[in-house]
């Protein structure tokens, strides 16, 4: 009745551990946005506004509320202006990448032009253009400025092609002026001097839903981009149908497949049963379960030997588990983004190993928790990332927390995003009995599936 | 600000989700219909943070449905509507570009004014500093003065920023500019209406499909609660007694069907979590199923709800 | 093989056997009653049963299994609505000045079937049981005579207000305690108690 936990519940103010306050958790009072200095790029955030418990009929409260609403209205009306210095124009290309026609085709035989175009395209694949993602839909004829360092793909005419999420993010932050293609001739967009700027509304309507970009994926993309992270699409981006097609193209030979499948199964339950079976028949073991005492009849000179013999329950070792390929995962439990910290330099052409792997879930489409098969396949699709470093070596709970493979689940509920880190901890590898002074490390933590908020 | 947009307000249906792009619509729905949605866009004036977000506003299907049922809003297939850009007459395109240019000129002038006033301010500051340097003898007094000056500075900037937002009335008051009009700044407009005409009622989509929790959602909304998605607290909705801009939420809400089995452990979990954050845990649902009534609205009348709190014993 | 004798039954098992309760729901009730009486020191405990219904098509009908109910007097007030608390504070009334109130408890156990229908039926039948209990208690638990005339006046004001708001929901609505016994892994005898109220009742802030 009076355990410590409950006291904390009754007097949260006395709780010694104050929960971390994440300002983006709650609806913010927009009056405090004015404290953000718009002209300085210092990242200092305003203090959390005081909120009331319930409405009361005081004029003060009404006044503050309408003040907050006015501040919100003002903040949301801020225009997206392009000063002459930093004006970057781009063009919307709804049909994706199209090579620049070197000799503009005569206008009259437009129909014949179209029919030859499809035949022409594969006929002259330039080395750089061949790699351009089929999902691109915006190009920048004259890319300049800092934003294009980590996004886009150049073709041989030095046009930078953007994926829908890249284009939408740039237009949102006011860094790109995207133009509609010319209605008269889509091949030469906007060169008749009448190119109309695309509105933000049009950009959302055109880019969300294009090339597998769901609103949830974009919410994750833009949310992390705003914090300075670098993101790239991961191979799991394509949905199941595309994925299967992709695989068929990749599959080298049927025999290769036959070899790989039983191996993958072996890592599961059958593998565990197998190792149990092996253990029973282990000729070197002094223990015996069929008859006699569990730790055998030999002389035990050390408690460690006894404990070792008592460890009869097989456990999963993430190191020996054979890696699986991403196609074993089931959507949406599939890595769709590779992410790097703001401090990591990422070269577009040769990105380093991703620092985070993110799967995106929508609470409206996926209403249940993932099952072990889904989660296991997702983890196994990520590379081995064992705990390393002096600190991890020393602290058992940090090792357990870090795990041997990890993935981040971005759960999106109608625009609200929560990040969960899932790691597979190898409890079996931590022999507590070998630890002389008992477990060491921070007091908290040590749960199997570690939940932590990524900042 | 207290303006009322033309009804019904078109809600953009994009790839299965419901978005609002018009600031007038967003302000109006919040003020008059207690519909808050979730802001999911980047603010161009502060693009590198997630504390304050901008348009568009994502609505839950429940919110969109409620507004459609009240005839306050309608659903528009936005990608389809944007196709109208292709068939826009050249005349309309020219007119629209002229309008944008005029708006761009207005902002260019405003920014020029802003620069001038900033320059004046900094000039003034330099002069003050010089004056202060001369008055080294009165060092103590000068120091306090300097402190006051710096504390004043941000608020002056704020006013300048707010002025930039102010609508029509400042436009007419700005011709007294010292800078000659330059080339108009390019603008990325917030919405596509204009140049596109308001979508015709024949193009409206059907009312949004809603989850089985809709009756409880609509019931709480009818009682004056503001509702938002509940992911942060592991529930379906958060219920606020007033605008979430100013009030803490009262309830973590979970809906059940009338005969759906409730795991009693879930009640404990929800009740305990709620009490821990000074909120109630509220469960409820409609007594009648969809087959028993004519419409979703009729089910809302049969909703019963229960509030749970830890008893402390 | 040596003959073994089973260990003596625990106090709670004996209690449940003695109360001659058959059926799992009633056994749960007996266990909760035991907990209320001995851990929380409730008095005048009484139990009730809401019979099962044979049909379930009408939403207002009772569920298919009987529901047990217990009532009694807690040594301290279990629940005070925040606005009532404010009123008491303003009128310098403490909990000790007030006459005790009979509290109703629904005993449940983990894994038991439960639904909104169950909850609604309990609340629908509650006034009936409250009335029954009032008659049974009679005037034996009347107002404590207050010596101080000022206090008498404050209390009168309080009871007048309480009468005034009853049924309006201003000081909360009908409420009861939901008791849940943890029977996972055999159970450790823990009973968790939650205040349940009909409708949207704002949470307490302390």
TrEMBL record, chain A:
<feature type="domain" description="tRNA-splicing endonuclease subunit Sen54 N-terminal">
    <location>
        <begin position="73"/>
        <end position="180"/>
    </location>
</feature>
<protein>
    <recommendedName>
        <fullName>tRNA-splicing endonuclease subunit Sen54 N-terminal domain-containing protein</fullName>
    </recommendedName>
</protein>
<keyword id="KW-0819">tRNA processing</keyword>
<dbReference type="Pfam" id="PF12928">
    <property type="entry name" value="tRNA_int_end_N2"/>
</dbReference>
<dbReference type="GO" id="GO:0000214">
    <property type="term" value="C:tRNA-intron endonuclease complex"/>
</dbReference>
<dbReference type="InterPro" id="IPR024336">
    <property type="entry name" value="tRNA_splic_suSen54_N"/>
</dbReference>
<feature type="compositionally biased region" description="Basic residues">
    <location>
        <begin position="441"/>
        <end position="455"/>
    </location>
</feature>
<feature type="region of interest" description="Disordered">
    <location>
        <begin position="100"/>
        <end position="135"/>
    </location>
</feature>
<feature type="region of interest" description="Disordered">
    <location>
        <begin position="1"/>
        <end position="22"/>
    </location>
</feature>
<dbReference type="InterPro" id="IPR024337">
    <property type="entry name" value="tRNA_splic_suSen54"/>
</dbReference>
<dbReference type="GO" id="GO:0000379">
    <property type="term" value="P:tRNA-type intron splice site recognition and cleavage"/>
</dbReference>
<feature type="region of interest" description="Disordered">
    <location>
        <begin position="430"/>
        <end position="455"/>
    </location>
</feature>
<feature type="region of interest" description="Disordered">
    <location>
        <begin position="41"/>
        <end position="66"/>
    </location>
</feature>
<feature type="compositionally biased region" description="Basic and acidic residues">
    <location>
        <begin position="114"/>
        <end position="123"/>
    </location>
</feature>
<comment type="similarity">
    <text>Belongs to the SEN54 family.</text>
</comment>
Automatic annotation (TrEMBL), chain B:
<feature type="compositionally biased region" description="Low complexity">
    <location>
        <begin position="172"/>
        <end position="181"/>
    </location>
</feature>
<dbReference type="GO" id="GO:0003676">
    <property type="term" value="F:nucleic acid binding"/>
</dbReference>
<dbReference type="InterPro" id="IPR006677">
    <property type="entry name" value="tRNA_intron_Endonuc_cat-like"/>
</dbReference>
<comment type="similarity">
    <text>Belongs to the tRNA-intron endonuclease family.</text>
</comment>
<feature type="active site">
    <location>
        <position position="240"/>
    </location>
</feature>
<protein>
    <recommendedName>
        <fullName>tRNA-splicing endonuclease subunit Sen34</fullName>
        <ecNumber>4.6.1.16</ecNumber>
    </recommendedName>
</protein>
<dbReference type="InterPro" id="IPR011856">
    <property type="entry name" value="tRNA_endonuc-like_dom_sf"/>
</dbReference>
<feature type="domain" description="tRNA intron endonuclease catalytic">
    <location>
        <begin position="213"/>
        <end position="286"/>
    </location>
</feature>
<dbReference type="InterPro" id="IPR059049">
    <property type="entry name" value="TSEN34_N"/>
</dbReference>
<dbReference type="InterPro" id="IPR016690">
    <property type="entry name" value="TSEN34"/>
</dbReference>
<feature type="active site">
    <location>
        <position position="279"/>
    </location>
</feature>
<dbReference type="GO" id="GO:0000213">
    <property type="term" value="F:tRNA-intron lyase activity"/>
</dbReference>
<feature type="active site">
    <location>
        <position position="248"/>
    </location>
</feature>
<dbReference type="Pfam" id="PF26577">
    <property type="entry name" value="TSEN34_N"/>
</dbReference>
<dbReference type="GO" id="GO:0000379">
    <property type="term" value="P:tRNA-type intron splice site recognition and cleavage"/>
</dbReference>
TrEMBL record, chain C:
<dbReference type="InterPro" id="IPR042777">
    <property type="entry name" value="Sen15_fungi"/>
</dbReference>
<dbReference type="GO" id="GO:0000213">
    <property type="term" value="F:tRNA-intron lyase activity"/>
</dbReference>
<dbReference type="GO" id="GO:0003676">
    <property type="term" value="F:nucleic acid binding"/>
</dbReference>
<dbReference type="InterPro" id="IPR018593">
    <property type="entry name" value="tRNA-endonuc_su_Sen15"/>
</dbReference>
<dbReference type="Pfam" id="PF09631">
    <property type="entry name" value="Sen15"/>
</dbReference>
<dbReference type="GO" id="GO:0000379">
    <property type="term" value="P:tRNA-type intron splice site recognition and cleavage"/>
</dbReference>
<feature type="region of interest" description="Disordered">
    <location>
        <begin position="1"/>
        <end position="24"/>
    </location>
</feature>
<protein>
    <recommendedName>
        <fullName>tRNA-splicing endonuclease subunit Sen15 domain-containing protein</fullName>
    </recommendedName>
</protein>
<keyword id="KW-0819">tRNA processing</keyword>
<dbReference type="InterPro" id="IPR036167">
    <property type="entry name" value="tRNA_intron_Endo_cat-like_sf"/>
</dbReference>
<comment type="similarity">
    <text>Belongs to the SEN15 family.</text>
</comment>
<feature type="domain" description="tRNA-splicing endonuclease subunit Sen15">
    <location>
        <begin position="31"/>
        <end position="128"/>
    </location>
</feature>
<dbReference type="InterPro" id="IPR011856">
    <property type="entry name" value="tRNA_endonuc-like_dom_sf"/>
</dbReference>
<dbReference type="GO" id="GO:0000214">
    <property type="term" value="C:tRNA-intron endonuclease complex"/>
</dbReference>
<feature type="compositionally biased region" description="Polar residues">
    <location>
        <begin position="1"/>
        <end position="23"/>
    </location>
</feature>
């Amino acid at each position: 009745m009076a355990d410590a936990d409950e006291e904390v519940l009754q007097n949260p103010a006395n709780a010694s551990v104050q929960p971390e306050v994440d300002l983006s958790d709650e609806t913010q009072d927009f009056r405090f946005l004015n404290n953000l200095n718009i002209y300085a790029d210092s990242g200092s955030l305003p203090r959390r506004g005081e909120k009331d418990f319930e409405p009361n009929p005081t004029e003060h409260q009404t006044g503050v509320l309408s003040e907050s609403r006015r501040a919100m209205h003002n903040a949301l009306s801020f225009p997206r202006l392009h000063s002459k210095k930093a004006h970057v124009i781009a063009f919307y290309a709804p049909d994706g990448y199209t090579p620049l026609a070197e000799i503009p085709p005569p206008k009259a035989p437009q129909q014949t032009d179209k029919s030859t175009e499809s035949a022409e395209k594969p006929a002259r694949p330039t080395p750089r253009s061949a790699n351009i993602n089929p999902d691109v839909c915006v190009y920048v004829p004259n890319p300049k400025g800092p934003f294009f360092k980590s996004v886009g793909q150049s073709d041989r005419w030095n046009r930078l092609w953007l994926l829908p999420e890249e284009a939408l993010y740039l237009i949102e932050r006011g860094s790109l002026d995207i133009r509609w293609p010319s209605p008269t001739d889509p091949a030469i967009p906007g060169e008749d001097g009448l190119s109309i700027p695309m509105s933000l509304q049009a950009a959302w309507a055109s880019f969300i839903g294009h090339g597998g970009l769901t609103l949830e994926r974009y919410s994750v993309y833009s949310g992390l981009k705003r914090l300075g992270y670098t993101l790239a699409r991961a191979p799991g981006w394509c949905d199941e149908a595309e994925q299967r097609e992709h695989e068929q193209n990749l599959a080298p030979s049927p025999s290769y497949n036959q070899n790989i499948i039983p191996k993958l199964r072996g890592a599961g339950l059958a593998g565990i049963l197998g190792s149990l079976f092996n253990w029973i028949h282990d000729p070197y073991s002094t223990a015996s379960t069929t008859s006699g005492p569990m730790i055998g009849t030999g002389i035990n000179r050390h408690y460690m030997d006894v404990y070792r013999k008592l460890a009869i329950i097989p456990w999963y070792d993430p190191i020996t588990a054979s890696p699986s390929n991403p196609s074993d995962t089931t959507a949406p439990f599939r890595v769709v983004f590779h992410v790097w910290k703001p401090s990591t330099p990422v070269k577009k052409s040769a990105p380093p190993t991703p620092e985070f792997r993110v799967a995106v879930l929508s609470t409206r489409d996926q209403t249940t928790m993932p099952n072990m098969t889904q989660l296991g396949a997702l983890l196994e699709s990520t590379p081995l990332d064992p705990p390393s470093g002096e600190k991890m070596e020393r602290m058992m709970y940090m090792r357990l927390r870090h795990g041997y493979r990890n993935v981040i689940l971005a759960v999106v509920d109608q625009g609200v995003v929560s990040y969960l880190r899932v790691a597979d901890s190898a409890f079996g590898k931590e022999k507590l009995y070998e630890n002389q002074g008992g477990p060491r490390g921070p007091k908290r933590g040590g749960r199997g599936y570690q939940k932590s908020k990524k900042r | 600000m207290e303006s009322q947009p033309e009804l019904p307000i078109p809600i953009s249906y994009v790839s299965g989700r419901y978005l609002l792009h018009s600031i007038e619509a967003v302000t109006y729905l919040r003020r008059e219909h207690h519909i808050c949605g979730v802001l999911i866009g980047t603010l161009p004036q502060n693009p590198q943070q997630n504390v304050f977000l901008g348009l568009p506003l994502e609505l839950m299907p429940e919110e969109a449905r409620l507004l459609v049922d009240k005839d306050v809003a309608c659903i528009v297939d936005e990608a389809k509507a944007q196709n109208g850009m292709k068939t826009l007459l050249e005349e309309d395109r020219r007119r629209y570009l002229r309008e944008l240019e005029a708006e761009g000129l207005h902002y260019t002038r405003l920014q020029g004014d802003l620069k001038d006033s900033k320059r004046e301010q900094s000039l003034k500051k330099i002069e003050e500093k010089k004056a202060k340097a001369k008055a080294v003898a009165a060092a103590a007094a000068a120091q306090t003065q300097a402190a006051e000056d710096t504390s004043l500075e941000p608020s002056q900037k704020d006013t300048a920023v707010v002025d930039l937002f102010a609508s029509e009335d400042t436009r007419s008051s700005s011709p007294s500019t010292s800078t000659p009009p330059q080339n108009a700044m390019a603008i990325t407009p917030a919405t596509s209406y204009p140049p596109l005409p308001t979508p015709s009622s024949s193009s409206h989509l059907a009312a949004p499909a809603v989850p089985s929790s809709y009756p409880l959602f609509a019931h709480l909304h009818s009682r004056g609660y503001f509702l938002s998605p509940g992911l942060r607290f592991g529930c379906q909705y958060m219920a606020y007694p007033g605008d979430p801009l100013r009030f803490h939420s009262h309830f973590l809400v979970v809906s059940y069907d009338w005969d759906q089995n409730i795991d009693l452990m879930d009640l404990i979990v929800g009740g305990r979590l709620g009490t821990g954050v000074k909120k109630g845990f509220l469960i409820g649902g409609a007594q009648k199923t969809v087959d028993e009534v004519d419409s979703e609205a009729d089910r809302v009348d049969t909703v019963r709800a229960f509030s749970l709190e830890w008893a402390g014993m | 093989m040596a003959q073994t004798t089973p260990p003596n039954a625990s106090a709670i098992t004996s209690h449940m056997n003695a109360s001659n309760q058959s059926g799992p729901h009633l056994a749960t009730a007996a266990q909760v009653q035991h907990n209320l009486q001995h851990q929380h020191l409730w008095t005048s405990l009484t139990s009730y049963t809401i019979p099962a219904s044979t049909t379930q098509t009408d939403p207002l009908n009772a569920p298919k299994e009987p529901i047990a109910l217990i009532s009694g007097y807690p040594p301290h007030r279990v629940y005070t609505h925040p606005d009532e608390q404010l009123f008491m504070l303003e009128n310098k009334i403490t909990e000790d000045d007030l006459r005790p109130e009979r509290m109703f408890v629904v005993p449940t156990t983990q894994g038991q079937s439960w639904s909104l229908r169950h909850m609604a039926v309990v609340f629908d039948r509650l006034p009936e049981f409250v009335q029954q209990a009032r008659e049974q208690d009679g005037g034996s638990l009347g107002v404590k005579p207050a010596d101080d005339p000022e206090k008498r006046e404050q209390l009168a004001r309080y009871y007048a207000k309480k009468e005034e708001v009853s049924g309006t929901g201003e000081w909360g609505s009908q409420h009861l305690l939901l008791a849940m016994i943890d029977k996972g892994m055999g159970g450790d005898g823990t009973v968790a108690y939650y205040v349940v109220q009909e409708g949207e009742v704002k949470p307490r802030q302390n």
